[in-house]
């Protein structure tokens, strides 16, 4: 019997080895059941198992890690799926991802009667459960591969497998597409013999959410045997992005006294995670309010929309009683629907309490006093008001109006933009002798209208008493200017007029003395007592001090006040013309050639300082007693010009020809002027008039130029 014991042990040991080998051969890594169906309960209970999942990596499950697509669940190490809190609606589908160093797989939990939350999770992963892609007479079987982003080392790691049940012996798998042989290259690869697909590095869903790859089988020469068949790789989102506020600064305004619940502004944040998951489902809350008076909770933010609204009564939202009309709120956005596990981001919202015109301006006193000297203009008093509204708005800025006591429009009032005071001004000089006192009634309003329940009261009007101070005013000439018309050349001592000046200070009974202020030609004299003006010299209309026949002089009237006051009057003397100027001729020198065929010598013109009819037409004559009759001739051209010509050629010499010119005045004035005529030798267009080496124009050229000039007159 002893020899049989080793044999029996050997047999038993071989059976154990066979059983173990069979077990290893039958082990398939992954979930033993891929899809589960449960009915939607009234509520998932915290820490109560929903179902049990069986996952094996065929290596003892030593380091299995589970991830659930919903933040409300977890999978324990024994494979039980439990709720983290009491929850009712979780959607229609949950996905459980299991991963160990040796295997990785995905299971689907279908909740019958569940409702979508943030979109269907089936849309997120974009595949219909784990059923293979439909094929038409193809032996390559592929299913979408789901890979969580942000996986850690080690790499490469297997993430899926392609099966070809009819693959010929010696054939190979080949993987192509973006992420393999197209940029970004080298992310995925396939074992050409087994069809195992692996990823070589960490994926980022926010960079690329899906990869469209293609699988085919080839022979040893690389020739395609079957395919390509599309293979979709879906990157499962992880909550790796915090919410951020991208549109700041955030500044809102709300009118003081606004009803409770008034919307101030909206603040929304952005989360780069998958918007179809809770990873990007944001909730908002107010973390801090500064200042915290009169209530620490002046505002509320809608957790889903981000709308900030007022929550205090209108009475507390009074800008005039607030410590500071500006509030700063620290707004927090948290993903994962606001769960504690969610990531957060913050921003500052500044809210301004805007002023409305709920306070009318009020004068600081009912009556104001002002004094002003008669004849003066400018600001005489500043009226002060108080207004509790915001100085930067039209609810504070004042507008003043004179409503009584200003019939002559002698006063105006304007607002000082810096102080808001009313600047009352005299714009037309006041006269003490007419009125020594003025009383004005002034009202003040705001630029903006008051709110309906506020009105202007008695304090919005004030009275201004103005006292006019008497000053010594200068006498006033009447009329001013004074005008008189006289002929020039009247005899010295002739009386022109008596000036008249009166003193506006009628109550002071002052005397007036007169004097000359400006007499440019020194022609006048004035009696200091009675103001009679007479001449001290001959008046000459042609004087340079006379302009357009008018001579201007200025006189002073001085009263007997202390100090004396002075008034100025103007005298305009219009001088009538007298024929007291004889005409003169031009030119007075002429040249002519001794052999000239054209015997014309020169064209003479005449001018007269007098006015018409004491000027042209002029009469031109040659003084017959001094010149032979048969040598010279003068002929009239027009009222102001005549032609002097020779009746025969003369020898080279200088000749003096007396010309008589007479105007048309009554009596006429006559002037005799010598015309010097040079008879010159003219050879080859050169003129010799006894001046050796000197060149002259010919007399004929001079005559032609003179005629041309005359024609242009």
TrEMBL record:
Topology versus the membrane: Lipid-anchor; GPI-anchor
SUPFAM superfamilies (alphabetical): Cadherin-like
Keywords: Calcium, Cell adhesion, Cell membrane, Cleavage on pair of basic residues, Cytoplasm, Glycoprotein, GPI-anchor, Lipoprotein, Membrane, Metal-binding, Repeat, Signal
Biased composition (Basic and acidic residues): 158-172
GO molecular function: beta-catenin binding; cadherin binding; calcium ion binding
One Pfam family linked to the record: Cadherin
GO biological process, one term: cell migration
Gene Ontology cellular component list: adherens junction; catenin complex; cytoplasm; side of membrane
Residues annotated as signal peptide: 1-22
Cellular compartments annotated: Cell membrane; Cytoplasm
Residue intervals of the Cadherin domain: 147-245, 246-363, 364-477, 478-585, 584-695
Disordered: region residues: 156-178
InterPro entries referenced in this protein's UniProt entry, alphabetically: Cadherin, Cadherin-like_dom, Cadherin-like_sf, Cadherin_CS, Cadherin_pro_dom
Predominant localisation class: membrane
Annotated PROSITE patterns: CADHERIN_1 (PS00232), CADHERIN_2 (PS50268)
Function: Cadherins are calcium-dependent cell adhesion proteins. They preferentially interact with themselves in a homophilic manner in connecting cells; cadherins may thus contribute to the sorting of heterogeneous cell types. May act as a negative regulator of neural cell growth.
Subunit structure: By contrast to classical cadherins, homodimerization in trans is not mediated by cadherin EC1 domain strand-swapping, but instead through a homophilic adhesive interface which joins two elongated EC1-EC2 domains through a region near their Ca2+-binding sites to form a tetrahedral, X-like shape.
Name of this protein: Cadherin-13
Native species: Neovison vison
């Amino acid at each position: 019997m002893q020899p049989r014991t080793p044999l029996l042990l050997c047999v038993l040991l071989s059976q154990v080895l066979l059983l173990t080998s069979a077990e290893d051969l039958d082990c398939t890594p992954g979930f033993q059941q891929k899809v589960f169906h449960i009915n939607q309960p009234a509520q998932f209970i915290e820490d109560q198992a929903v179902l049990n999942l069986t996952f094996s990596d065929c290596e003892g499950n030593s380091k299995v890690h589970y991830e659930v697509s919903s933040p409300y669940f977890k999978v324990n190490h024994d494979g039980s799926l439990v709720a983290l809190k009491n929850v009712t609606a979780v959607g229609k589908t949950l996905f459980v991802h299991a991963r160990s160093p040796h295997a990785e797989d995905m299971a689907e939990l279908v909740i019958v009667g569940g409702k979508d939350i943030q979109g269907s999770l089936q849309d997120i992963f974009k595949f219909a459960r784990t059923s293979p892609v439909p094929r038409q007479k193809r032996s390559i079987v592929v299913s979408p591969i789901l890979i969580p982003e942000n996986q850690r080392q080690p790499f490469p790691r297997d993430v899926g497998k392609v099966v070809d049940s009819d693959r010929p012996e010696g054939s190979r798998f080949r993987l192509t597409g973006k992420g393999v042989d197209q940029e970004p290259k080298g992310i995925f690869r396939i074992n050409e013999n087994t069809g195992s697909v692996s990823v070589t590095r960490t994926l980022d869903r926010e960079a690329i959410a899906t990869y469209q790859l293609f699988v085919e089988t080839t022979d040893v020469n690389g020739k395609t045997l079957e395919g390509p068949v599309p293979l979709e790789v879906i990157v499962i989102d992880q909550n790796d992005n915090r919410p951020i506020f991208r549109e700041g600064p955030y500044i809102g305004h709300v009118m003081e006294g606004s009803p409770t619940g008034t919307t101030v502004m909206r603040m929304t944040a952005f989360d780069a995670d998958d918007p179809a998951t809770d990873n990007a489902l944001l909730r908002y809350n107010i973390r801090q309010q500064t200042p915290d008076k009169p209530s620490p909770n002046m505002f509320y933010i809608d957790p889903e929309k981000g709308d900030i609204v007022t929550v205090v009564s209108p009475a507390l939202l009074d800008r005039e009683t607030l410590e500071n009309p500006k509030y700063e709120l620290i707004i927090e956005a948290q993903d994962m629907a606001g769960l504690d596990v969610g990531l957060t981001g913050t921003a500052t919202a500044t809210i301004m309490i805007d002023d409305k015109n709920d306070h009318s301006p009020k004068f600081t006193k009912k009556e104001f006093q002002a004094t002003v000297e008669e004849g003066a203009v400018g600001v005489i008093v500043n009226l002060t008001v108080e207004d509790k509204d915001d100085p930067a708005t039209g609810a504070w800025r004042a507008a003043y109006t004179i409503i009584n006591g200003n019939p002559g429009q002698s006063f105006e009032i304007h607002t000082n933009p810096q102080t808001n005071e009313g600047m009352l001004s005299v714009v037309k000089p006041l006269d003490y002798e007419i009125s020594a006192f003025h009383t004005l009634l002034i009202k003040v309003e705001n630029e903006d209208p008051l709110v309906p329940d506020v009105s202007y009261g008695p304090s919005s009007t004030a009275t201004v008493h103005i006292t006019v101070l008497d000053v010594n005013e200068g006498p006033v000439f009447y009329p001013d200017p004074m005008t008189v018309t006289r002929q020039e050349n009247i005899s010295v001592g002739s009386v022109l007029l008596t000036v008249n000046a009166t003193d506006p200070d009628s109550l002071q009974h002052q005397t007036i003395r007169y004097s000359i202020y400006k007499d440019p030609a020194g022609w006048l004299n004035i009696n200091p007592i009675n103001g009679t003006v007479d001449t001290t010299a001959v008046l000459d209309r042609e004087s340079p001090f006379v302009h357009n026949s008018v001579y201007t002089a200025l006189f002073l009237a001085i009263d007997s006040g202390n100090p004396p006051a002075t008034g100025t009057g103007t005298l305009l003397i219009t001088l009538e013309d007298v024929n007291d100027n004889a005409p003169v001729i031009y030119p007075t020198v002429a040249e002519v050639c001794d052999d000239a065929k054209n015997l014309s010598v020169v064209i003479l013109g005449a001018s007269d300082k007098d006015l018409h009819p004491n000027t042209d037409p002029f009469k031109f004559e040659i003084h017959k007693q001094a010149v032979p009759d048969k040598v010279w001739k003068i002929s009239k051209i027009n009222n102001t010009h005549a032609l002097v010509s020779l009746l025969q050629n003369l020898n080279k010499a200088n000749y003096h020809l007396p010309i008589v010119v007479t105007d048309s005045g009554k009596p006429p004035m006559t002037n005799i002027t010598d015309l010097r005529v040079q008879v010159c030798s003219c050879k080859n267009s050169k003129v010799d008039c006894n001046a050796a080496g000197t060149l002259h124009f010919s007399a004929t050229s001079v005559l032609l130029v003179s005629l041309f000039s005359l024609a242009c007159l």
